[in-house]
Amino acid sequence: MASFNRVILVGNITRDPQVKRTPTGMAVTDLGLAVNRFWFDKQTNSRKEETTFVDVTCWGRDAELAGEYLTKGRPVLIEGRLQLDTWDDKATGQKRSKLRVVCEKMQFLGTRDGGGGGGGGSGRGAPAQSGGDSYSPPGDDYGGPEPSYGGSGGGGYTAPSDPPQDDVPF
Question: Residue 16 maps to which CATH number?
């Protein structure tokens, strides 16, 4: 039986990221992401909102970029996979678990001052819309060429080895 583990989230950063390093020197940061859902309740004839808070872990260059450019309130698109962490609680001895998203691709949205709107890049292989920042990592290996990031007019980074993405459904 085949498996598929992919998550795409767009939300706002809930706290300023703090970049840490593993003993081997790899950068890692944990992000808090607030994702809003809106719907119309016909029974009460009112608009409803629900916020889900998601923990996201970024590694390598993504972690460094998050620490440098992301701040509380900044909108971001995260693409990654779900991971279940389990441990024994030392105080109670009970098993604990937590579901998190491991970031595999990050795209900055909005403007550099943290405001929403504007657009961000449209992903790998396509030019970014003006007014936003974007970043698409070169893949799972962080040993690729150093990227150049969008300047004041938006722009973005596309890995030179990426094939064209004409068949992307979104």
Answer: 2.40.50.140
Please tell me the total count of domains within the chain.
1
Answer whether residue 158 is part of any domain. no
pLDDT of residue 64: 95
What DSSP assignment string belongs to the chain? ------EEEEEEESS----EE-TT--EEEEEEEEEEEEEEETTTTEEEEEEEEEEEEEEHHHHHHHHHH--TT-EEEEEEEEEEEEEE-TTT--EEEEEEEEEEEEEEBS-TTS---S-B---TTSPPPTT-------SS-S-SPPP----TT------TTPPP-TT---
Quick: pLDDT tens for 85-109. 999 999 998 999 999 999 999 999 9
